[in-house]
Amino acid sequence: MRARVIAVVNQKGGAGKTTAVLLVATELARMGLRVAVLDADPQRWISCWHQQLGKNCPDLLQVVPYVSAANLEREIRRCQPMVDIVLLDLPGARSPLIAQALGHSDYVLIPAQGSAMDAQGAANVIDLLSYLEEKASIRIPHSVVLTRINPIITTRALQGVKALLTEKKVHLLSTPIVERAAFRDVFSCGETLYTMDERSVSNLGRAQENAQMLGTEVFERLVRYGLIAAAKPQAQQHTARLVA
Ligand SMILES: Nc1ncnc2c1ncn2[C@@H]1O[C@H](COP(=O)(O)OP(=O)(O)O)[C@@H](O)[C@H]1O
Ligand SMILES: [Mg+2]
Question: Which end of the chain is more exposed for a tag (fewer CB within 10 A), N or C?
């Protein structure tokens, strides 16, 4: 089976895209899938994180830096035979890369903060996907994932947003990405949630649990859409190196 492409898209900067990419990529790799992240975010957070990780990097996770409109398609094609999942970390601003990335995607994850629909960037992506379906009969499965949710008001926020998304017939992941220091610090310290020191990061266990639930839910979605096999892969070999 060729590698499946997941784009994480929201035209708004700061929506939590790169954080979602890092968490989903790490969890899918921990579950035994070979994952390549293509870093097309001009902020290059994922590439810098990956560079700092060194031997802390999960075996099955690789990051390809400097992906742009000029080489996106080539990089996807290059990675596909060597991995199971290609995750795209995209720029925030309106960029030709977004439409281009959607054209290659098997599944789209749309991070949105707080009461989702006020995040206009998420609504724009959903409208674009609906347009593709109506005009070109191209149906790309997609889900919204709530990000930076205050752990205390999770339920109330979720209820309001669920109602809105149900009305729009948009799938919402039941696991939101909670606002956690660990999700912020993981970028700056060259660690994963599993190598960080629990004495120096508050609620690290909760953050790990949140990330695992998210990873499991994304995995289940991919299975449901027939994009990957239901059985969790057995421990796989090291992937061929995508970056020297
Ligand atoms: N769940 C979270 N908990 C804490 N900080 C977060 C969370 N999600 C995002 N952030 C922080 O918010 C900022 C923007 O997030 P980022 O993932 O880079 O968004 P985007 O890629 O959409 O621009 C970053 O500083 C990031 O560390
Ligand atoms: Mg980003």
Answer: C
pTM over 0.90: yes
Pocket test of ligand 1: the residue of 17, 19, 152 to mutate, having most ligand atoms within 8 Å of its CB, is 19
Work out the pLDDT band at 25, boundaries 50, 70, 90.
very high
Instruction: Calculate mean pLDDT across residues 81-109.
Output: 93
Supply the residue whose CA is at minimum distance from atom 2 of ligand 1: 179
Q: Is the dihedral of CA 179, 25, 192, 244 positive or negative?
A: negative
The percent of residues in the chain predicted with pLDDT above 70, rounded, is: 93
- Contact criterion met (CB below 8 Å) for 47 and 65: yes
Q: Is 92 in the pocket of ligand 1 (CB under 6 A)?
A: yes
Angle at CA 107, nearest 5°, toward 101 and 110? Answer: 80
**CATH fold group of domain 4-224:** Rossmann fold (3.40.50)
Residue 153 has pLDDT above 90, yes or no: no
* CA of 179, closest atom in ligand 1: 3
Counting from 1 in the atom list of ligand 1, the atom nearest the Cα of 12 is 22
Ligand 1 proximity of 91 Cβ (cutoff 6 Å): no
Backbone angles phi, psi at 201, to 5 degrees: -125, 120
